[in-house]
Design a protein that fits this description.
Layout: E1 28-29, E2 35-39, H1 41-55, H2 62-69, H3 73-85, E3 89-96, E4 101-107, E5 113-115, H4 120-125, H5 136-145, H6 151-166, H7 175-186, H8 193-209, H9 216-233, H10 237-255, H11 263-280
Parallel strand pairs: 2-5
Antiparallel strand pairs: 1-2, 3-4
């Protein structure tokens, strides 16, 4: 199967979906059924600082907010934009007096913000269109129904379904039910690791065939990536869990700064790099 024909591409696997400013995460329901809006850690710290300043009627500055959140001035500005677009800011006034310089921000404290935990479920929710209103409980129920499905298979299957829905003329009334039914009907993941490994073989063959058309170092780099991903696919569940954790930690800061349509690429590259690092340091599949 060629790269264009593949329903589960190694890169650009997720269709372009609407961005939700607050870290690109969709609104979800908490344990009580109330809808909440997750904020990235930097955004959450700034939200808390703004709350304190609002209650005390104090002026804030970009510099002080950056220090509190251990972020750059640009990061503070982006966080304010995200909070504002989510309806968290009622008004913002620039203050320039001999005694004070900064911003006086009035907040809408009724907005149900919460800190993003960076959990596996939230990572998967990033791949799904906000308009689908997928609940965390939906993804959890799927993982419980198919306990042997790996996180890579789940992520690729969700991305495949996003692409399938985008190209379909069928109107989906309930995306949560549709998502569960897709896995149930297939009896498990729609994209398996065996399918991914077969694609790796195909891409490696393509790279060898076109070796004379690309610099040797580029082809060598591709081969190293392919081999790292192959070793990951054949590793034990324990080794995969270690690599998955490494890749999540590696990708987390980058995901907060890039558009959602780039998240799948970032996650994929983080997985490859983490696998390469793990095996280069002597990590071997556990018996």
């Amino acid at each position: 199967m060629s790269r264009k024909e593949s329903p589960f591409p190694l890169q650009n696997e997720a269709a372009e979906v609407p961005l939700l400013p607050a870290d690109g995460l969709p609104v979800v329901e908490d344990d009580t059924g109330n809808k909440t809006i997750p904020l990235a850690p930097v955004q959450w710290v700034i939200w808390q600082e703004l709350n304190r300043a609002d209650v005390q009627d104090k002026v804030v500055s970009y510099r002080k907010l950056a220090q509190a959140a251990n972020a750059s001035i640009r990061g503070v500005r982006d966080a304010l934009v995200a909070i504002d677009k989510e309806g968290g800011i009622r008004s913002k006034e620039t203050i320039r007096t001999p005694n004070e310089q900064g911003l006086r921000v009035r907040l809408n404290t009724e907005r149900p913000f919460r800190i993003s935990t960076g959990s596996k479920v939230e990572e998967l929710l990033r791949l799904l269109p906000v308009a689908w209103e997928i609940r965390e409980s939906t993804l959890t129920s799927i993982t419980r129904a198919f306990p042997h499905m790996t996180s890579l298979e789940f992520r690729r299957s969700l991305s495949y379904l996003v692409q399938q829905a985008k190209g379909s003329h069928q109107t989906i009334q309930n995306h949560n039910a549709w998502l569960r039914a897709a896995f149930t009907k297939n009896g498990g993941p729609l994209v398996t690791e065996r399918m991914i490994e077969a694609q790796i073989d195909s891409l490696k063959q393509e790279a060898k065939t076109g070796q004379g058309k690309v610099p040797a170092e580029v082809d060598t780099s591709l081969q190293v990536d392919f081999e790292a991903l192959r070793r990951y696919l054949t590793a034990s569940p324990q080794d995969k869990e270690i690599i998955d954790q490494m890749s999540r930690e590696k990708a987390a800061p980058v995901l907060q700064m890039v558009p959602q349509d780039k998240h799948s690429d970032i996650l994929q590259q983080a997985l490859i790099e983490s696998a390469r690092t793990y095996f280069s340091k002597g990590g071997k599949p556990s018996s």
